[in-house]
Amino acid sequence: MFHSRHFNCVPLAEGIYVLEAKEQGGAMSNAGLIDMGDHTLIFDTFNTPQAGKDLREAALYFFNQPIKYIINSHWHGDHVRGNQHFSEELIVSSSTTRELMMKTQPEWLNRMRNLLPNLDEDILKLNASIDHEHHALKQKELSSELSYLLEIKESILTLKVTLPQLTYDRKITLHGSARTVELLSVGAAHTDCDTILYSPSDSIAFVGDLVAVHNHPLLVDGDPISWLEALTFIENLNVDLLVPGHGPAASSPYIQQIRQYINDLISISKQMVVENALMDVNNIEIPEPYLHWKFGSIFYRNLEFLIKTANR
Ligand SMILES: [Zn+2]
């Protein structure tokens, strides 16, 4: 089996793998590998060049054939920063996603390069704290924080912003000798434009960050109302298996949990606006169904965003 410090390789069907981000390492989000028969297709490229390098190696390890298409589901860095290892292949995204990458990624890299001295300082401090920490659990937490910072540092030093060369607007169908898959733009949802990959013959959809499993989905860069419509669109595809951007693959009824989450947050935020509550969202407790989802801080960012947009 292929081994990477960034992800675990999970087979979903004959010729289809999800590469699930490990808690530590430079992946941060999931990627997909699809054997099209005469070539390989890759869905998303992780958060860092170093994870992207392993992604390339995994694709060649599992399917000993040329890699042809790389899909970027949306502009967020944790789905596109491995692109540079595929500059010889064809990177595909929606035209809006490419524009947003152009707008955000070079700027992010410049900002992060300027922050390198601070990052070095944080790394030194963390190393010292780990040496002085005798509590095993705390030491483990500090070590995982350190490994995160080291991954970020490596990525800033090595990243070359690499944009898609082929863009599409609504739908593109890709044919291989063994399967045909569809890229579908669902419009504004998690971001201003999100792409899903649908394989009708496998009843599998790679849905990017339109679905997060046991993770708080991030609402602040998109449009929660049209996101709800996008979820209905995915439901109507009648897929058996959904591959989320974060968390393990899930069956289609899981979509209802994301719909419920968005609706719950909209109603909490509306209530806060109506009551003109002092806008300290931190007084709100995360509702029980979402209490154990990862990245609880995103819940508060989401609420602040919804209150702000309701006030507009
Ligand atoms: Zn995202």
From TrEMBL:
SMART domains: Lactamase_B. CDD domains: metallo-hydrolase-like_MBL-fold. It catalyses: 3',5'-cyclic UMP + H2O = UMP + H(+); 3',5'-cyclic CMP + H2O = CMP + H(+). InterPro entries: Metallo-B-lactamas, NDM-1-like, RibonucZ/Hydroxyglut_hydro. Residues 28-246 form the Metallo-beta-lactamase domain. Pfam families: Lactamase_B (PF00753). Counteracts the endogenous Pycsar antiviral defense system. Phosphodiesterase that enables metal-dependent hydrolysis of host cyclic nucleotide Pycsar defense signals such as cCMP and cUMP. This is Metallo-beta-lactamase domain-containing protein.
